[in-house]
């Protein structure tokens, strides 16, 4: 009887590992597909006024030079959106809208190693209406239920990256890691 129970636990363990592996492969494929779409979007020409993304749409890229990462940005921050890449919180702004821009991502996928970023590092958002560079100025850790992070900063533009914390926590993390960055300059177009 003990042998059968042991074999059952081993089989269950293999099944769990196989499911986790399949889910990881699917998420990686979804992110690669989203990045291909993002590259096409970034190279299309639109004026800022005609930029009206819908939930789930790939809208551009977030480049993190210090990590050598280029990530797709998806409109929305639902679990399905975050499987494709970095989620744009729909109630927040986009570059040149002179308000807070909020981007979220999973700590174990798109925002792996985000904790190694430091003040002065650069973040670049590329959209169909331009490229926008931001410099990281500060970081902080807040409770997972702290909603004060997301708020209007008008007329000041502020880029906020959010992810779960601690980074190596197993399960639903109790905190959030927040990065604040501010515009350097924009390239390609004046945003009109």
UniProtKB/TrEMBL annotation:
GO molecular function, one term: hydrolase activity
NCBIfam families tied to this protein: class_D_sortase, sortase_fam
Coiled-coil intervals, chain numbering: none
Gene3D superfamilies from the UniProt entry: Sortase
Keywords, ordered alphabetically: Hydrolase
InterPro entries the record matches: Sortase, Sortase_D, Sortase_D_1, Sortase_dom-sf
Active site, UniProt feature: 106, 164
Protein's name according to its UniProt entry: Sortase
Name of one Pfam family that matches: Sortase
